From TrEMBL, chains A, B, C, D:
The keyword Ligase does not apply. This is Catechol 2,3-dioxygenase. InterPro entries: Catechol_2-3_dOase, Glyas_Bleomycin-R_OHBP_Dase, Glyas_Fos-R_dOase_dom, VOC_core, XylE-like_N. NCBIfam families: catechol_2_3 (TIGR03211). It comes from Arhodomonas sp. Seminole.
Length: 317, 317, 317, 317
C-alpha cells in the first residue's frame, strides 16, 4: 500500500526534434505517443506503464512536474487527507488530466516542486513481453536504459536566514508519503543542517532526492542501466554522439551506484545510473555524510565536486 | 508495514569446521557468534542485523527453518491472526527463542517448511559504518557477499495425484504474507500446473521461491553480489578452493540475474547471485514460463536444465 | 619479421543460408564477398584485411585450411626453405590462389592439417576508420566480435602406439615458424606426453593450439570480445537465438580467458573469447598443466571437462 | 628478436615511506628488494622478472630512466651499432649496472630521456607459479595490478621554432628500435605536426608513448588491470585511500583502453589501464587524430582535456 515508485517526469525542452533525438536515440527511450499540445510521451523498454517521460515544448528548460504511482486508487483518498492535514494544498484532478492516467492528486512539495500521485496509467507492457521473455529486447538504441529511476530536485537552502527547503521537503516525504530516508548530508558549523537527502519507497537506494541550492530547481533525472559495464557503454554512446558530459563514469559514495551525468540539448541534466549492491529497507540505519566529506559522498573517486555539478541546473517548475 | 525481507536461514551441516571454512573463507560471511548448542551465527558485511545464517551441527544436511523480518512488532499480531485464520497452526515464541531476536511466530508453510516471522534482531551494523562509509570494506574474504538474498524451497508436486504444494505455498505467501508473485512456471498438459514460483516483498525479483519436486526439500539459498564481474570473481574463488560447482556463470531467464550454483561441504546448494536490471513491483505483470521453455527460464544460455539441478537437494526440515 | 597472426580460417558448412545467419547475425561478422564457387567471405569489424573467415559449402562439416599472415613477402622465401628443410612438403601458390591474397605457401602440419602462409591480402579497413575513430561502430549485430583470434586443432594422440601428433605439430610451430609455447598439458603415467599445447606469435596467450584426440580434427575457432561483460552479452545472444551452447560463461585456467563455446548450424564448434590479463612473451616461462588438473586447466570453475568438449569435433580437412 | 617489452622504470620519490605505501598497498606491487643506496625494487604479481619499478629517493620527483628488455644478448650488439649509426651516443654498461641485470646499453632518446636496453634480469616468477596456476593469487593489495604496461614521456614541442622532439623520438623508436607506430596526433595549422605518438613492440596498443609539452618531462607510467570492472575497483581503492585522482574511469579514444589517472605522493602521475579490445600489429594502419579531436582521442567520453592532464607533469630526468 502507498507509493510504489516514480511514475513519470515532465521535462521542458527548447527544441523538440533535438530532444527526441536525444531521449530516443541516445538515451534509448521508446516513443509511445504525442498529444495535440505537442507533448511527447516516452517509456523505457523495461517499463510496463505507457510512459515515464513527457517532453513538453517550452521557452525555458526545466521540470514541470514529477509524478509517483501509488498502489491502489483508494490510496489516493488517504493521501489526499494526509497531505491536506499536513497543511499543504492538494487538488484532485480528474482522470485524463494526466494523459492516460486515472484520477490524480496535484500538490506542491514544501520546496515548491509540483508533484502528482496517481494509481492508474494505461498498460503497454515491457518490450520483452510476459511469456518466456528474453532478458533484453533486440533493436535497443543508444544507452538502452531500462526505466526512469529517480530525480534530484534542488531546494532553496539558506540556513543563515532560516530557510531549509531540503529539510522541509524531506520531512513531508517521510511523514506524509511514508518515504524512507536512506542517506543525508549534514552541513553547517554544527552539522545540524540537512543539506541533501535521499529517500526511497522501493528497495533501491532512492526514488527521489533533494539537494540544497540558491533557488528551487531541477538538478537531474536518472535512467537505469543493468550494471557497470553498461555505464561504460552509456558513456561511449555519449562520446559517439558528442553529448555534453558533466561527469564521466564514477561511483557515488552515496547510494554506491555507478553513474554518468550529461545534458540534454536544452540543458537539462540527465544521469544513467546502475545500482551496485544496495538494499534499501525501512530498518536500514540512515547513512550520514558530513560536509567535509560531501565531495566523496557525491563522487567517491575524486572526492571533489565539480563546479558544474552544484551550479548548473534548470528550473524546478 | 508487513514483511520486509528474508531475515535468516538455519542450515544443517555435517562438519562444522568444514562449514565454517566454506561460509567464512569461500563465501565471505563474517563470524559473529556461537551458542552453547554449537550453532554458529554469520552475517554479510553489508547487513546491519546480527546474523543472517545459522549453521547447526546435524547428522543430515538441509534447512531447519527460514525466517523473515517484519517491519514492526505490531505486525506480528496481525500476521498471527491471518495465519491462524487461514487454517495454519501458528505458535508465538518468546523473545530469545530465536537468538538475539524479539518474540517470533513459528509456523509451517503448506509445503511443510518451517518459517519464522520476527520484528527485532540485535543490531550490529554494516562493516562500512553509517558515517561517510566506503562502498566496500577492506579485508573481505572469498566471494565477499553482501547479504543473504533469498532461498528456493522444494515442494512436493504430484499433479496426477492432485498434490501441488508449490501452488499451496505460493497462495499462502500471497494471501497471508502479502508477497507479490513475480514469475511462475506453468506445467502440465494444459499448462495449468503452477510448478515453480518466485515471490517478493522488496523490489528485487524474489525474496523466496518454490519449485516442485518429489518431496519437501531445500534447494538452495543465495547470497548477493554487486554485479556480473563479481560473478566471475565468485566462480574463480570456487575454482581456487576446489568447491563443487553445479552451474558456472550464467544468466537466469527468470529474474535475469547472474548466477553460479555450488555446494557447501555438507551438500547444501548455495548460489551467489547478482541482480541485473529488474524492478519488482506490485503492479508488474506476472511473468509466465511455459514448461517447454523451463530450461531457458532457469538457465537462459543453454536453455537446458542439468540433471543435478532438479535431482540434487537436501532436506527441507 | 615472421608470422604476425592468424589470417583466416576456411570452414565447411552444410547449409550456407543457415551458416550466414549464424556467422553474420549471431556472431556478428560482416559479409564482404562471395566467389563463383559459392564461398562466402566474412570479416570482423575491427579487422583491416578483407576477410578472416571463408565459409565453403560442403557435405561434411570441418575445416579446410587455416592461414597465417607473415610480415613481408620476403618472409615467404625464408619459410619455404625452412619448411622444406624440416622435411615437410611445401607448395608455393600463385597470387589469387587464396582469393585477394598475394602468393602463398601451402603445406600440411605434421598433424595433417592444411596451413597457408601469405604476406598480402586486400585491405578493407576497420569499420571505425583510421581518423578520429570511435571505439566501436554502430549497427553491430549479435555478439559483435572484433576479430578471428585463434583455432584449436585436434591431433591424433595414441602414446601407447608411439603416436603424438600434438608434440609433432608443436615442434614444427616452434622450430620452423618461430611460435612461442605458452602453455602445455603433460599427460601419461610419467607426465611426459605433451597432450595439448598453446602457442603464440602475438603477445596474446595463443594464436593456435593443439589438443590430442583419436584422429585429426577441428575442435574450434575463436572470435575476440572486448571483455567479460561481452561474454555475458554473447551468451545472451546465443540464448536469444537458441544456439546450441557447449559451455556457458567461464574462465579458462589455461590462458585465463573468459569464454563460451557453442556450435554453428553445421556442428562446427565456435568460441567467443575475451582476454583477461595475459601478456605472452618469448621469455615467459612455459606454464604446465598436469593431467590430473587438466579439467581445471580447461574450465577453471568446475575443474571438470564435459564429455562434449573432448568428444565432439568436426573434420580437420 | 629485438625489443620485447618495457622492462622497468626508475621513478624518483620524495618520501620513501609514503611512496612504498602507495606503490605497494594502493597500486598493489610487491616489494622484492632494496639496495644500499636506498632504492626500492618492486614487481607486479604477474611479472616473472625480478622488478619492474625502481623507486629512488630524491629531492625532486620525476623519472630517472626507462628500460626495455630485448630478446637475446646478441640483440644488444645489433642495437649498439644501430643506435650509434643513427648518431646517438650509446654506452655499454657492465652486468650489474642495472641491479640483477646483465650488460645493458644506456643512451638518451632524441627527447633527452634516458633509456636502457638489457637482455637479462634475475628471474623470480609470477606469484601464481607455472604449474597448474590459479588465474590470480590470494592476498593482493589495493588495485592488484598485473604488470608495468607503458610510460608516456613528455617531449619538447615548439613547432614555431622548429622544435619537435616528439617526432624525433618517434622516428628513433621506429627506425632504430623497430617499434610500430599505432596512433598519432597531428597538430598545427596544416596538420603536419606530429604532436603525440603511441608505439608498440607487443601486440598491445602501446609500450611507450610521447606527447609534446614545454620541456622534457615525465607524464605517467601505467600498470595493467584485467578489465573494466577492475578499473572501477582501482578507482574505489583510490577513493578509499584518498589518493589525488586526475581522471576518473573513462575510455581513451586512443588505444580504446579503460583508464584512471592519479598521482603518487611525490606528484608523479600513475595510470591503471585495462586493454579493451585492440590488437597492435605491424600492418595495422596508423590511426590519426586531428588536433580538433585531440580531446576525444585522449578522453573519449568528455572529448575534453582537463588542464591538469596537459600542464602537470614531473621531471623527465
Amino acid at each position: 500500500m502507498g507509493v510504489m515508485r516514480i511514475g513519470h517526469i515532465n521535462i521542458r525542452v527548447l527544441d523538440m526534434d533535438a530532444a527526441r533525438h536525444h531521449y530516443e536515440n541516445v538515451i534509448g527511450l521508446l516513443y509511445v505517443d504525442e498529444d495535440p499540445q505537442g507533448n511527447v510521451y516516452l517509456k523505457g523498454w523495461d517499463e510496463w506503464d505507457k510512459y515515464s517521460v513527457i517532453l513538453s515544448p517550452a521557452a525555458r528548460a526545466g521540470m514541470n512536474h514529477i509524478a509517483y504511482k501509488v498502489e491502489s486508487d483508494a490510496d489516493l483518498d488517504g493521501f489526499r487527507a494526509r497531505i491536506s492535514d499536513y497543511g499543504v494544498d492538494v487538488e484532485e484532478c480528474a482522470a485524463g488530466a494526466l494523459r492516460d492516467c486515472g484520477r490524480s492528486l496535484r500538490f506542491e512539495l514544501p520546496s515548491g516542486h509540483v508533484m502528482y500521485l496517481y494509481a492508474e496509467k494505461s498498460f503497454v507492457g515491457k518490450s520483452v513481453g510476459t511469456v518466456n521473455p528474453d532478458p533484453w529486447p533486440d533493436g535497443l538504441k543508444g544507452a538502452g536504459v531500462h526505466w526512469l529511476d529517480h530525480a534530484l530536485l534542488m531546494c532553496e537552502l539558506d540556513p543563515e536566514n532560516g530557510v531549509n527547503k531540503v529539510a522541509e521537503a524531506t520531512a513531508f516525504m517521510e511523514k506524509v508519503l511514508d518515504f524512507k530516508l536512506t542517506e543525508q548530508v549534514m552541513a553547517g558549523p554544527d552539522g545540524d543542517v540537512q543539506a541533501a537527502t535521499w529517500l526511497t519507497r522501493t528497495s533501491t537506494p532512492h526514488d527521489i532526492a533533494f539537494v540544497g541550492g540558491p533557488v528551487k530547481g531541477f538538478h537531474h533525472c536518472a535512467f537505469y542501466l543493468e550494471d557497470w559495464s553498461d555505464v561504460l557503454k552509456s558513456a561511449d554512446v555519449m562520446g559517439k554522439n558528442k553529448v555534453k558530459i558533466d561527469i564521466t563514469p564514477q561511483r557515488h559514495g552515496i547510494t554506491r551506484g555507478g553513474t554518468i551525468y550529461f545534458f540534454d540539448p536544452s540543458g537539462n541534466r540527465n544521469e544513467t545510473f546502475a545500482g551496485l549492491g544496495y538494499l534499501g529497507q525501512p530498518d536500514m540505519p540512515v547513512i550520514t555524510w558530513t560536509e567535509d566529506e560531501l565531495g566523496r559522498g557525491i563522487f567517491y573517486h575524486t572526492g571533489e565536486l565539480n563546479e558544474a555539478f552544484t551550479e548548473v541546473y534548470t528550473e524546478g517548475a
